[in-house]
Amino acid sequence: MKKILLMSVLMISAIVLGGLIGDVTAGVSGLQWLAYSKSFAFQPNTFIDVDIFSLTFGATFKANVAQIILIFVGLFTYYKIAPKLITK
To answer: What percent of the chain has pLDDT above 70?
Structure first.
């Protein structure tokens, strides 16, 4: 349980900090490549449409270079510190 919590904290931190770094460096010359992002979306047509409501399912994934780099750093950090911090 502690390993899952540690991995979750590291990944959420990497995603949030990567997004922040990507937004901040978007206008900085020489660091604009960190803000390059690609998005993938699954947005089908309306799934249920009745008089009262309309239900639609969809998902969007958007990641920038800084987030990808920090996710790898988070994974590396996890595998280096988890055995030392969490013992059975």
So the answer is: 95
Q: Which of 16, 62, 22 is nearest to 39 (CA)?
A: 62
CB atoms within 10 A of CB 6: 16
What is the pTM for the complete model shown?
0.75
Q: What tokens were used for 57?
A: 């399912």
CA max distance for the chain: 58
What is the rounded CA–CA span in Å between residue 25 and residue 37?
12
**Helices 2-24 and 65-85, interaxial angle, to 10°?**
150
Terminal-to-terminal C-alpha distance of the chain: 11
% pLDDT > 90, the chain = 43
**C-alpha–C-alpha distance, residues 38 and 35, integer Å:** 10
